Amino acid sequence: MEVEIKELAARPLIGIRSNVPKNAIGDLIPGAFGQVGPYFEDNGMEMTGPPVAIYYGEHGNEMDMAAGAPVTEVTATTDEITALELPGGKVATTVYDGPHEGSPAARDQFAEELVGRGLTTVEPCWEEYLTDPRQEADSSKWQTLMVQPIAD
Question: According to CATH, what is the number of the domain 4-149?
Fold first, then answer.
C-alpha cells in the first residue's frame, strides 16, 4: 500500500452531519451530496475539491459522520446543512481503487499500515471521492483518497 505523509491546511466544508447506523452509511452519503450540491450552488459557494465523507467516531453500531463538499467560504447554512471543517495538520493519505463497498476493508488495511509504521492516528479521518460515478460507470475504476490525521 502506497502511503504519503504530508501537511494540509484546514479547509471549510458545507455538509450534513449525523449519527448513522453503520449499515446505512452508503445511503447517507449520496443523499447528503444530493442536498448539499444544489444548496451551495444556489447560495454562491464555490466547490474547491471533491465530495467528502468525514468520520468523527464510532458509537456502538452508529457512526458520527458528515458528508459534504469543501467550499471557498461558507456563506449560508440551514438547520441540517451546516458549516464544517476539514482540519489542517499532518496526515497520512492513500488512494483506494474500487467500488465504495470495498472502502471499509481498504480503510482497515490503511489503519494497519499506519500502526505498523508506528504512527498514532487522531480523529476525524475522511474520504475524498475523486471519481464521479455519474461520469465513470465502471466501479473498478473509482478512486477514493483516504486521509488520516496523525499525531506529530
Answer: 3.20.80.10
Dump pLDDT digits (tens) for 27-38. 888 888 889 988
- Indicate the pTM of the whole model: 0.93
Which residues in 107-132 are b (16+ Cβ under 10 Å) and which e? beebbebbeeeebeeeebbbbbbeee
Please name the helix (run of DSSP H) or strand (run of DSSP E) that holds residue 148, with its range, or none: strand 143-149
The answer to whether residues 61 and 102 touch, using CB atoms and an 8 Å cutoff, is no
pLDDT tens-place string over residues 42-99: 999 999 999 999 999 999 999 999 999 999 999 999 999 999 999 999 999 999 999 9
Contact 70, 39 (CB under 8 A): no
Where along the chain do its domains lie? Answer: 4-149
